[in-house]
Design a protein that fits this description.
The protein has helices spanning 5-8, 10-25, 38-44, 66-83, 95-106, 132-136, 153-163, 181-191, 203-207, 241-259, 265-278, 281-303, 329-337, 366-370, 375-389, 395-411, and strands at residues 27-28, 55-56, 59-60, 87-89, 112-116, 138-142, 167-170, 194-198, 220-224, 235-239, 307-308, 317-321, 341-342, 344-346, 360-364. It has 436 residues and is an alpha/beta fold. The chain folds into two domains: 5-30 and 281-420, Aspartate Aminotransferase, domain 1; 42-278, Aspartate Aminotransferase, domain 2, CATH 3.40.640.10. The strands form four sheets. The chain has a seven-stranded mixed β-sheet, sandwiched between helices. The chain has a four-stranded antiparallel β-sheet with strand order 11-12-15-14, with helices on one face. α9 links the parallel β8 and β9 (220-224). α3 runs antiparallel to α11, α4 (66-83) runs parallel beside α11 (265-278) and α12 (281-303) packs parallel to α15. The two termini are 15 Å apart. The chain binds D-serine (DSN). The site of D-serine has 3 residues, from loops. D-serine binds at residues 32, 123, 173.
């Protein structure tokens, strides 16, 4: 066996090294980004990658599964405990795969879905016409209210009565306000639809008790695990008591063999670690700081003349409308990238720009909060964004902002979770040092 990546593949090693440096040197404001712990990384890059596994604990298609069965059961029990669920499936490779498994469970081709419009905050996997979901099912979309830019539940009910969907999806990728899952369930019940809550962005807040949970209301809850939950790039499905009784076996079969093949046991181990971390008081404190940082940044940006969609935020993200600044989302993304502040251009509700241009940007605080940025740094970041976006920055301005970004990143290093600072050497090979 080759001793380590640096020797066996210097090309890949060099690129990983450069990416690690990029992460260290940038202020990451992409709302879906975060930094996992060393323990989560270690489990993700572990020898579990070597194990072929299909099926579920106690009903596998290959032998030698005694330890991976124990691991998957541990992850399932932790997920149920953390979210107060009766059923948990830890096998989905991603949040999108989790959604596809729910669709396969309750829908037939051509059945109707009512989800949030992609341009109003929804997600690709909720039925965008160029995706598998959009091609297989008859997908309809609700939008936010044009005045308040918030969900209008009476309007969604009226639309649901008109469309009579078989499945309603509550959940978003860029919606800065709380979602009323109880109200969504009432709407679903009124039209005889199933309710799927996709909590990919807010599941860390839910785990910490800072956003109402959909588990008591939705028939199905899906999520990715790498965003506010700070785990590996993966997915999960949860159900409360009532749905579990009816759908446990059906969801199991929809995940495997319905939409997936062999189990990514290394990701399941990493999710078990993530779930243990998310049960801790330090995780709850992290999420409280995340919300506080998001509030401060939003207030500071408003004070500097930026318009925020819906007037602010209740969660870890906000949407900046840049029409008053006279630039597009794409220009803003590029300007901020030039000083190593990463954001993404984002469509705004009722946007007149193309998705490749957009009128706004999405800004989130989850990753920088993990790095230890607090209220003081939020004021400085608001200043930096203002400096870069309110006027065309000069060469001198860019140099000053770059210097400040660099100083902030040095003050809050995260690099220890990526590689050893002193030796520039990835260190996960320790797991091979077994006793013979
Ligand atoms: N769902 C996308 C996002 O919100 O950025 C990527 O996971």
């Amino acid at each position: 066996m080759n001793p380590c990546l640096e020797i066996s593949d210097p090309d890949v090693f060099a690129l990983l090294h450069r990416e690690a440096q990029r992460q260290q040197d940038s202020i990451e404001l992409i709302a879906s980004a975060n930094f996992t712990s060393r323990a989560v990384l270690e489990a993700t890059g572990s020898i579990l990658t070597n194990k072929v596994v299909e099926g579920y604990p106690g009903r596998r298609y290959f032998s030698g599964c005694e330890y991976v069965d124990a691991l998957e059961n541990l992850a399932i029990e932790r997920a149920k405990e953390l979210f107060g669920a009766t059923y948990a499936n830890l096998e989905p490779y991603t949040g999108s795969q989790a959604n596809h498994a729910v669709y396969l469970t309750v829908l037939k081709p051509g059945d109707r879905i009512l989800g949030m419009d992609l341009g109003h905050g929804g997600h690709l996997s909720h039925g965008a016409k160029f995706t598998m979901t959009g091609k297989i099912y008859d997908c309809h979309f609700y939008k936010v209210d044009p005045e308040t830019e918030r969900l209008d539940y009476d309007q969604i009910l009226a639309q649901a009565k008109d469309i009579r969907p078989k499945l309603i999806i509550a959940g978003a990728s860029s919606y800065p306000r709380m979602i009323d899952f109880q109200r969504f369930r009432e709407i679903a019940d009124e039209v005889g639809a199933y309710l799927l809550a996709d909590i990919a962005h807010i599941c860390g807040l839910i785990a910490a008790g800072l956003h109402p949970s959909p588990v008591p209301y939705a028939h199905f809850v899906t999520t990715s695990t790498q965003k506010t939950l700070r785990g590996p790039r993966s997915g999960m499905i949860l159900m409360g008591e009532h749905s579990a009784a009816e759908f446990a076996r059906k969801i199991d079969s929809a995940v495997f063999p319905g939409v997936q093949g062999a189990v990514h046991v290394h990701a399941i181990a990493a999710k078990a670690v993530m779930l243990k971390e998310a049960m801790s008081e330090s995780f709850a404190a992290y999420q409280r700081q995340n919300l506080e940082n998001s509030q401060i940044l939003a207030e500071d940006l408003i004070a500097r003349g930026f318009r925020l969609v819906s007037g602010g935020t209740d969660n870890h993200l906000m949407l900046l409308d840049l029409s008053q600044q006279g630039i597009t989302g794409k220009e803003a993304e590029d300007r901020l990238a030039s000083v190593k502040i990463t954001v993404n251009k984002n469509l705004l509700p009722y946007d007149s720009q193309k998705p490749t241009v957009c009128s706004g940007i999405r800004v989130g605080t989850s990753a920088i909060t993990t790095r230890g940025f607090g209220s003081e740094e939020m004021h400085r970041i608001a200043d930096l964004i203002d400096t870069m976006l309110s006027d065309e920055p000069t060469v001198n301005t860019i140099a000053k902002v770059q210097a400040e970004v660099s100083q902030l990143c040095r003050l809050h290093p995260h690099i220890d979770s990526i590689y050893e600072q002193n030796g520039d050497r990835f260190t996960l090979e320790s797991q091979y040092q077994l006793q013979n």
